[in-house]
From TrEMBL:
<dbReference type="InterPro" id="IPR013740">
    <property type="entry name" value="Redoxin"/>
</dbReference>
<dbReference type="InterPro" id="IPR036249">
    <property type="entry name" value="Thioredoxin-like_sf"/>
</dbReference>
<feature type="domain" description="Thioredoxin">
    <location>
        <begin position="319"/>
        <end position="461"/>
    </location>
</feature>
<keyword id="KW-0732">Signal</keyword>
<protein>
    <recommendedName>
        <fullName>Thioredoxin domain-containing protein</fullName>
    </recommendedName>
</protein>
<dbReference type="InterPro" id="IPR013766">
    <property type="entry name" value="Thioredoxin_domain"/>
</dbReference>
<dbReference type="GO" id="GO:0016491">
    <property type="term" value="F:oxidoreductase activity"/>
</dbReference>
<dbReference type="Pfam" id="PF08534">
    <property type="entry name" value="Redoxin"/>
</dbReference>
<feature type="signal peptide">
    <location>
        <begin position="1"/>
        <end position="20"/>
    </location>
</feature>
Length: 463
């Protein structure tokens, strides 16, 4: 028994020592100009993303303290708000054992960054980091708000500043490489972004194709830019990659389809995996997962990436053909309740739409025509329109239905059950469930497509 007690005491002491030896650092922030609505958040840059670790309200003396468990040094930001803006200034390069004290000044506009930021005795790494962050932030601000801003000459000055800054080495070799990666990524972001006037999502993008400036963009042709994980050390890493990949595709004459199509152009497996993770929210179906993610499964080689891969794989299985569909409980305009189970024995065709005066009317008209065509020939098919309006939009929905001569099955989904369950990002969608209430297609062709009726026929053939 004595041996057992001694072992237990020894084990507890070891556990205590292990916990006591967990590296920690602290950040104490005194707020000037805050009020009872002030919230202060702590962010950590992880894989090119500002991850919020914690948010707190200041105490009576307008002071906030954070304790951070960290095994590795890295970049942190304190922000006077629940979220962070796009421009990152006033960073903290935090190392185990650091005790950081700072003062943040909040102005009346309640910006997502401090108006002024003072840190007591910052370490050399923090000083160098902020030299770049603040210089970069000024460049972006001037480019946006100064009419006479000459991008090319100002970029040359910024590049020269970056060269001088990276030549000044610290004794911290890890930080030296980290800062070099961050700066090079930011510079590539500016250069590639400028080629598209910082807008590649428009249907008619603008390209900077003047012959005189083409030498300026020559360095973007280098395939080695995406051959390491360097972009993950900057908050603009993924934005840089989008612009750079779009630029390289443009130069090769590749037609833009989606950012996923550019994945093969990334020459580093870990970078490729994190790039895919960044756009996981757009992987809405199992078909998309099989097309874009599964072929790159070997890239998800770390434990964290393996877990993210597994979670996404589990999430998209609910879209698989033959999986039980969402057994919704929704009301019609008169308050009568319907569920998917009510239509067992029939193929259910659903039009998810948003009831507004000018939204999706062409597809809605085609949907109603398809319903009329099937009424006599296919009584085992039911067409249901499900409006995605909120409670405060009910009047709009009811008015559209009152003005519509077509009297079909019209339901309302005020809690966005379909969108949340199937992770839809837009309200307009066509779905088909078979006679057993199982998924046949959650991304059916629109009614204006000749494949719409063909898909219904295929669902009927299931039985």
């Amino acid at each position: 028994m004595k041996k057992l007690i001694v072992f237990i005491v020894f084990f507890q002491l070891c556990s205590f020592v292990t916990k006591a030896q967990t590296p920690q650092a602290s950040i104490t922030c005194s707020i000037k100009g805050g009020n009872d609505r002030t919230i202060v958040s702590l962010f950590h840059i992880q894989n090119s993303t500002a991850v919020k670790l914690e948010e707190r309200k200041p105490d009576a003396s307008m002071t906030v303290s954070f304790t951070v468990d960290l095994n590795n040094e890295g970049i942190y930001f304190v922000s006077p708000g629940a979220s962070h803006g796009n421009i990152y200034k006033n960073g903290i390069y935090l190392k185990p054992g650091d005790r950081v004290k700072l003062t943040g000044y909040v102005d009346a506009t309640m910006n997502l960054d401090f108006e002024k930021f003072e840190q007591d005795n910052p370490n050399f790494e923090t000083d160098k980091l902020n030299s770049w962050l603040n210089k970069f932030a000024k460049f972006v601000n001037d480019r946006t708000f100064t009419k006479s801003f000459d991008f090319y000459s100002e970029y040359a000055k910024l590049e020269e500043f970056a060269t001088i800054l990276t030549k000044i080495k610290t004794s911290n070799k890890y930080f030296n490489e980290y800062l070099k990666d961050l700066i090079s990524t930011d510079l590539y972001y500016l250069k590639a972004g400028n080629f598209f006037q910082f807008n590649i999502l428009t249907k008619t993008p603008t390209y900077d194709t003047a012959a005189a400036v083409q030498p300026f963009y020559k360095s973007l042709d280098n395939a080695k830019i995406l051959s390491s994980t360097a972009p993950l050390n900057s908050t603009r890493g993924f934005e840089m990659m989008k612009y750079l990949l779009s630029y390289q595709a443009y130069k090769k004459g590749i037609a833009y389809q989606s950012f996923f199509d550019y994945t093969p152009m990334i020459n580093n497996d870990l970078l490729k995996a994190w790039y895919l993770v960044k756009f996981f929210d757009k992987v809405a179906t199992q078909e998309m997962f099989a097309r874009y993610v599964e072929p790159n499964g070997k890239c998800f080689s770390t434990e964290e990436l393996k877990e993210l891969f597994s979670q996404k794989q589990d999430a998209v299985t609910k879209y698989l053909k033959g999986v039980p569909g969402l057994n919704f409980t929704l009301k019609d305009v008169n308050g009568k309740v319907y569920t998917l189970e009510d239509f067992r024995g029939k193929v259910v065709v659903i039009n998810l739409w948003f009831a507004a005066a000018n939204t999706n009317l062409g597809e809605r008209a085609a949907f109603k025509k398809a319903e009329e065509d099937c009424k006599t020939t296919r009584p085992d098919v039911v067409f249901i329109s499900v409006a995605q309006n909120k409670l405060y939009d009910l009047a709009v929905w009811k008015k559209i239905l009152a003005d519509d001569n077509h009297k079909g099955m019209e339901l309302i989904d005020t809690e966005s059950r379909f969108r949340l369950y199937y992770n839809f990002k837009v309200p307009n969608r066509f779905m088909i469930f078979d006679k057993e209430g199982n998924v046949f297609s959650i991304e059916a062709p629109p009614p204006t497509s000749p494949d719409f009726k063909k898909t219904i026929e295929k669902a009927l053939a299931v039985g």
